[in-house]
Design goal:
globular, about 0% strand, two-stranded antiparallel ribbon, mainly alpha, ABC transporter involved in vitamin B12 uptake, BtuC
Length: about 325
């Protein structure tokens, strides 16, 4: 494929659709991490929660026909989704319990969960299937796509709204977009959202006006577990229909970087996630050229480093600007 062809494909509806599809798990995990971050309990365990939920969803949905033989076929993938969400809640609750009840350092506790998920999923997969690489021997169902009617024949619009193959986006993509709107409304239009942000900004002041800081942080971590689980389920039951060892491939950590690049705001977080999705899709397009695969694999991590540098420079500039304003006010006083 020529460079001109690749360039043309980048500036197309199909590329935009690919970016949205690839960004979906990052968006979901990042929104979950945003809630916990704003509550003052950053969830470093997003990677492990995504991995655990992806594994549980595939395994339960694959064996559900044997466990529930009387149910209709379309129910089985949703049973897997429920199992994945429950797994995400359990892992998030463990993190909250160790940190909020036992006083453990939240970073160390989260790293422990990540290690547990990485090793535990491979161990269980090998115990059940005899394969350490993937669950390809299991017949795991997929979560269906949603096709918007009457638009496939419209140039550009049909491809944009129903993905590049005109078969629609996965359900999780629509969930990610809906959750972006709902979380924005929750954080900035509802009293509970204001309480969550108050707990993150100043827990002592929040407690002084009757807000239960521990309870709010519990809820924030559990909500982050649910959203991260949806991101993991998207990988194993939407993007693919199997579980692979370490299939999250650092997306949980990328989601953490996305939170700060998006200035700890839902809309900004989604935009930042789309940037990372574009970097991944760009790598796939460049893979058709004679570009060394090592360089292509470096694109997402390089974007992560650049994004964090930009965030840090912007934060320093904001601190300097605030210091100048304070000095000017002091001089006027």
């Amino acid at each position: 494929m020529s460079f001109e062809t690749v360039l043309a494909s980048i500036f197309s509806a199909a590329f935009i659709a690919s970016v949205l599809r690839v960004s979906t798990p990052i968006i979901l995990a990042a929104l979950g991490g945003l809630l916990s971050e704003l509550a003052g309990v950053i969830n470093i365990a997003l990677e492990g929660i995504m991995l655990g939920a992806a594994f549980a969803g595939v395994m339960v949905s694959a064996f559900a026909p044997q466990w529930f033989p009387g149910l209709p076929v379309w129910v089985f993938p949703w049973i897997g989704v429920l199992a994945g969400i429950i797994t995400g809640i359990i892992l998030a609750w463990l993190l909250a319990f160790f940190h909020l009840e036992l006083g453990a350092d939240i970073i160390l506790a989260a790293l422990g969960i990540n290690i547990l998920a990485a090793g535990g999923t491979v161990f269980l997969m090998y115990s059940i299937t005899g394969d350490k690489g993937s669950t390809s021997t299991l017949a795991s169902p997929a979560i269906p796509n949603i096709v918007i009617p009457f638009v496939n024949n419209i140039p550009f619009v049909g491809t944009l709204l129903n993905a590049e193959n005109l078969t629609g986006y996965n359900v999780f993509t629509y969930v990610a977009l809906i959750m972006t709107v709902l979380i924005t409304i929750f954080l900035y239009k509802m009293p509970l959202g204001a309480h969550l942000r108050a707990v993150g900004e100043n827990p002592d002041a929040a407690a002084s006006v009757g807000i239960n800081v521990k309870r709010v942080r519990y809820y924030a971590l559990l909500a982050s577990g649910v959203l991260a689980a949806l991101g993991g389920l998207n990988l194993s039951m939407g993007y693919l229909t199997i579980f692979q060892a370490n299939m999250t491939a650092g997306r949980g950590f990328i989601a953490l970087a996305v939170i700060y690049l998006g200035n700890r705001n839902p809309i900004g977080t989604v935009i930042a996630a789309l940037i990372f999705g574009a970097a991944t899709s760009l790598g796939a397009q460049l893979g058709t050229l004679s570009v060394p695969p090592q360089l292509i694999e470096m694109i997402p991590p390089a974007v992560t480093v650049i994004a964090l540098v930009i965030y840090n420079l912007r934060k320093r500039a904001q601190i300097v600007a605030n210091a100048r304003k304070f000095q000017e006010r002091a001089e006027k006083a």
